[in-house]
Amino acid sequence: MKLLENPEAMRNLSENWRSEGLVVGLVPTMGALHEGHLSLIRRARAACDRVVVSIFVNPTQFGRGEDFETYSRPFERDSALLREEGCDVIFAPTVETMYGGSSLDLSPSGERVYVEAGGLGEIWEGEARPGHMRGVATVVTMLLNIARPHRAYFGEKDYQQLKVIERLVRNLFFGIEIVPCPTVREPDGLAMSSRNVNLSPEERRAATVLQRALSAAANLKQQGESSVADLVAAMREVYDTEPLVSVQYAAVVNADTLAPLNSLEGGPARAIIAARVGETRLIDNIKL
Ligand code: AMP
Fold first, then answer.
1. CA of 286 to the centre of ligand 1 (A)
2. What is the CATH number of domain 194-281?
3. Which fold has domain 2-181?
């Protein structure tokens, strides 16, 4: 397994593989790897000749006052896990190589070019975290241009991010296949996340309420309920029982556009939820 920090070296290696006819897969991550990440890597390993895993805590997708500085960075542990999974290259650039001196100049009049995520980047997570989806769209564009994969793997855990990236790749003609991968959960249902380690034992117990609320909506749908208001009320009934959890949004949305739905008759739907559990912000979603 190789460790590369330099974008040019990464691209040259990938171009060489491509010229040999090898299929290249990319799994972008921010490190602090868990079974959710490993499931993406295994999917890539099974379908591609070469697997690149990027580890980059991207400053432009964190807002002011968010956890960029304190985000967990256990590089040695990550690297050992990736070796076990048969990853070919870890691409771990520095903020300076990715963004240069003007790294965090996000102002519209600044020197850097950013990729806007459009309307899909303004709602839900975009509204709760202004600039977040722009940071995501920008860094994913950079990583795809650097690693030049045929396929890139993303988790449904970050459902809105997945939809933004699918649209980015389609709208800007990247010619790369985006492979969505199902959410991996702890035995008690909590979606795995690098941020779960920040939860106190009481918060960790309370955090399962996100998935329990989503399941309540999904079960109701399964029983034939088609009123969105009733599904949303069922979610609220569950999360209202948990005083440690402060829900920011819980909604039933169109699975592609993420527009709020009035009725389930309008095509595929998804229930989405975001909450603060103490200082930690968690998100989750479920197919309806
Ligand atoms: P992150 O390191 O949090 O930026 O995540 C890197 C990739 O792993 C993203 O595509 C995430 O959606 C995906 N991911 C994170 N947690 C999970 C999970 N529990 N199950 C499946 N994929 C996940």
1. 15
2. 3.30.1300.10
3. Rossmann fold (3.40.50)
